[in-house]
Amino acid sequence: xxxELNLGTxxxxxLLVAFAVPCVISSLINSIYNIVDQIFIGKGVGTLGNxxxxxxxPLIILLSAIASLIGNGGAAYLSLKLGEKxxxxxxxxxxxxTTLTIINALVLSIISYILLPKLIYVFGCTDSVYKYALDYGxxxxxxxxxxxxxxxxxxxxxxxxxxxxxxxMLVIGAIINIILDPIFIFYFNMGVKGGALATxxxxxxxxxxxxxxxxxxxxxxxxxxxxxxxxxxxxxxSLGLSSFIxxxxxxxxxxxxxxxxxxxxxxxxxxxxxxxxxYGIISKVNSLYISTVIGISIGAxxxxxxxxxxxxxxxxxxxxxKVLITNFTIGIIFNILFVLFPxxxxxxxxxxxxxxxxxxxxxxxLMCHSFILVCGLNALEMTTSVxxxxxxxxxxxxxxxxxRQIILLIPxxxxxxxxxxxxxxxxxxxxxxxxxxxxxxxxxxxxxxxKILSKDKENIIIEDEKVNNTYNGKKIVITIAREYGSxxxxxxxxxxxxxxxxxxxxxxxxxxxxxxxxxxxYIVSEDExxxxxxxxxxxxxxxxxxxxxxxKLAKKESCVIVGxxxxxxxxxxxxxxxxxxxxxxEGKVKRAIKYFGLAKDKALKEVRKINKNRRKYYKYYTGTxxxxxxxxxxxxxxxxxxxxxxxxxxKNIISx
Length: 656
Known about the structure:
- By secondary structure, the chain is mainly α.
- It folds into three domains: 1-19 and 268-457, no CATH class; 45-265, no CATH class; 477-655, P-loop containing nucleotide triphosphate hydrolases (Rossmann fold), CATH 3.40.50.300.
- It is 72% helix and 4% strand.
- It is elongated, with a radius of gyration of 28 Å.
């Protein structure tokens, strides 16, 4: 469906429904999985059972983070290699991801099982909750391999072009869990063990579906050799690092909150177990709100990115307005529910016959009227974070997303709870303060980005009907690869002017922005990072977009293209002349000082650094060395010929 919708012309409402609904459903499934256990365990076991599931939640986050590291990395690498038409490497990415996932799943399960008695105390367990947490955790850990494997493979399945199957796999597992929970907990009277068993049986079914899909992969044909791990696994892992870091941050916050709830709760009338239990259930109910808002925002991301890259600023602003209004409406609804109905929400998770019922309800009301009193304001921060990602400002988006939970919440909790001796109440009001401060910061960030959208943007598009540009009636494309400081760019510029054809170097940025949906400013910043030994998922997105642009240019016109692995990209094209410009280290330093303004005492170090990373970038995307002369038709040493003379030589060869 998504492929049939035009992101630049289709009605915004229709696009948002098409893109956001699947994202919301997928996000909600994970939240519902956790909440279902809480509900039935709370009713069947009570406060201590709920606290036990909350104690184990950090371990589940950690295992999910490992699955994301491998699965998301493998999915990104698969997409990259499919885009490059390198099916053998694409098959290897699936095989290696599967092998590494299985190994990690088994090893982590064994280690977790052995260390579980100590880990649950690290996660904030109390003595009274210990037995329940151990009973629940041992079964969950035994099922961990199934969860890790299907979670990791679900990313591969989506990248293989089967997002519906991936979603069905998760939904079926969740439904089985919901059906089995009351049977095991109430009918067989298994308590927390029954909740854990229902969970892993649902995960086993999802695991079977994931493994079954491996035998019908659509994009490539798998062979036994593809499952052997080699050095490419490090590239795969590097592409999944971003999501891993995000989840580890959530892990740190959850462990911190579990511990402060138990330690500071001890000195309050609630004790240590009730705050631990209530924090877990309210956080997981709140995750329904967060999952919905994040799902809508992520669904809008490709629409925002595409239209921003295309210069359709009015459509971007329209998307933002509608997403923000929708998210704020959802936020207000949840906020009202938390403020007006905390007793009703808490009642879902505890039986009235429970001895701690009154204190449980009282703490739930206190938490809803303090810690998440203004949770509806978080809609702006979450929406703005995704907006920044859509515009390619990943670092800024990450910092804003971490502001509440890490930069503000933890320090304020420690100051109010311990330094000012407010105890558990200080931690609860820290949430209110952190949400308010984050909202104020998000207003400034959002408004500044919204104002930028009002400025005119250059919009350059390669039109299919563009008149072919030729040299002497013939179409010729010259690609120039070069070492930094060799003068290769100047050669290309002079040659294009002499031949009367277009020159593309930095000129490719606007075209790449259009193709990728990222901003020109962000692509420029990523271009600079190539000299900083930095390759990530966004680098791959930019490379694939550049690849498409270069192929379109080569098909439509004669031109000179400098850098960007163009020679390798056009390796199978006819009428392409591949040139390499190099020189001595001394020559590079002289040019760097003269033309790039580098200081004499730093020029040599900078030249070596840039060329080292340029070679690494070329090797990463082509699988061959930048200075391998067999990759080129012509090679010139600019120590012996000036850039003008090299350009003349190439022109003479083309003329002949």
